[in-house]
Here is the input.
Amino acid sequence: MKFAKKAVALVGAAAMATSMAACGSDSSTTATDTSSSDEKVTLSVWAWESTYTAAIKKFEEKYPNITIKLENVGTNTDEYTALDNAISAGSGAPDVAQIEYYALPQYAIKGNLLNIADKGASDYKDFYTPGTWSSVNYNDGIYGLPMDSGPMAFFYNKAVFDKAGIKEAPATWDEFYEDAKLIRKVDSYITSDSGDAGFYDSMVWQAGGTPFKTTGTDKVSINLTDDAGAKKFTELWQKMIDEDLIDTKTTGWTDEWNRGMNDGSIAGLLTGAWMPANLLSGAPDAAGDWRVAQLPQYSEGETANSENGGSSLAILSSTEKADAAYKFVDFMSHDRSSIDTRVEGGAFPADTETLEDSDFLSKTTLKNADGDEVDYFGGQKYNEVLAKAAENVTSGYQFLPFEIYARGIYGDTAGAAFTGKTTLAKGVESWQSKLKEYATQQGFTVE
Amino acid sequence: MVKTETSGGEVLGPPANLNRHRVDWRGWKFMWPFAVVFVFVFIVPILYAVYESFFQSRMVGGTVFAGLANYRRLFGDAQFWTSLRRVALFTVVQVPIMLALSALLALALDSLRLHGMKFFRVSTFMPYAVPAVVSALMWGFIYGAKYGMVASLNDWLGTSLDVLSPNTMLVAIGNIVTWEFTGYNMLIFYASLTTIPHSLYEAAAIDGAGEWQIVRRIKMPELRGSLAITVIFSIIGSFQLFNEPSVLQSMVPGNTITTYYTPNMYAYNLSFMGGQSNYAAAMAIVMAAITMVIAYAVQLRSMREQMR
Here is the structure.
């Protein structure tokens, strides 16, 4: 017995010693720049998007000397957590990472990302849609290249709308409000929201709001309570909550939410253009019933739109293979074969050329998991609507330099409005004061 | 040198005497493998956390020494105290219910009057073997007011129960935790009951004691010792409540489960979402101290009771 115990302890100690040794040797192995074209380079890439794999194969065919080690370390915030850990540990960070537009400023301001403006990226302005291009530009630098985009659109279940006696999708928010009442009468909700910060941001953006502004690297202004756009949306949404016109109990991306869309009890969705593939997998029984329309407007004749989601590929400033990394990012984002591969896989493009492509625009079906083409939108050329939505995205909206945290605590504060504990205006006000408090703690000058 | 001094002229003195003032390192020879591991995986991380808690790392300005600022902030942090009060309330309500249930189950098992004892024992223990994340997910589906089992119950009874609302959330979590750990605690109780020699029951029966008297006079006192252990485990467990609320967080609306729902969740979110791992370290240390004090107080009390 005694010997066994001692042996176990010894093995433990030995394991510790070796793992510590492994930690120590990590940083010294990649000291030289090995990105010249004739040498073999391996790039570490973190991404969660499923369409990357096929595009990476194409890249490796074109650049046989560059091997891509793709790792999925988690979806969005999970990846950011891993990224933060690796950055603060000073080792283990990838060369290239998929980062959503809203999170990009946060890494750019901390100096974690490489400014690729002088590597050729600055010539790409007209290649991408205005919304995505402005999202990768920050403080006169370019910190990533757009991979996909998510212009907002109104997805709705036409069967439910027909049942409620509504002939076409609402053009204005007033019509949206009236339609919501009719839809309530047939026991459905026009949409659901139980406190989604990303959605709130997009809606304020669409209403013309610019509540967040960053100047330089250390000044930030947070003005949700006085911002005209934020006010417009907050009032509209409060009315919808008060009169039980939106489903505040069903949380997005849960099983209940998918089922709600599947059986028509949630009859609409205000979300990004990347939604079709998710609708198909989440609400397969409703195939043929759904349609896409532009987002309703505050006054008739307007065409304002915003982005929701979408991500870029960014190069970490800690990389020692910057040239190879740029080749990779450039290929993935800018090369035709990569874009085509990813669009085929369900990504919504960020470049204007694809958005004008006739094959893309005339598509009426979606490919499901079995590879069958499903007529999900009842023969509608849905990409035509979504491409128009992308064109309508207004520029000028800025994310916070700590948007990840800001979105994380939206539920704590504004979320109370969705459980009837407070009003959305008051909730947003307390969100604002928490954000200001955090900004001050982080050393920003708050205006 | 020591040898000659102490032994003096007594050449035939006992050898044990020779080593009287010398530290005996023989024990340490056996100890060191453990001690090394213990120091590196236990002591060093704690010291590192204490060290970290004296700094503040900012997006603008980098890491600076902050002295006790993190601790001062903690004592004025309403969110922290809210979360602490929540787990305290949880402990006070959930732990007694769970332990009473466990004790009842253990007594029922021990009464030898149940059919299918083995099945009963295994099935009550089974939830403990299910990973907490999985069981939280499972209960999340059951609680669904639109499509879950709660929905079916509502249909059947004509009620409109919604367990996933802010007012009932803590009870819902308490139910999950009770479900998970009742079997585990039951097993501890049952183990101590099985140590009672049968002759004691026979003697009691001869003295004319009924079943209830046997339970009260023999079995219950025996449970006391294991009660102390289960109480301490349960208190520590509930103060560290994390898995269940953080899994359910993405399934419930609005602010039902906040990012500071429990102290552990608060520390986690501060650290991994807010980039404030220094403040989170201070919080972890204070929480450890609070938990230790409470556990120690409970232990002292139960020890005193056992002496009686």
Observations:
- Chain B touches chain A at residues 30, 33-34, 36-37, 40-41, 56-61, 141, 144-148, 162, 164-166, 250-256, 258-260, 269, 272-277 (CB under 8 Å).
- The domain at 74-307 of chain B is CATH 1.10.3720.10 (MetI-like fold).
- Chain B has two domains: 2-52, 74-307.
- The CA atoms of residues 67 and 201 of chain B lie 63 Å apart.
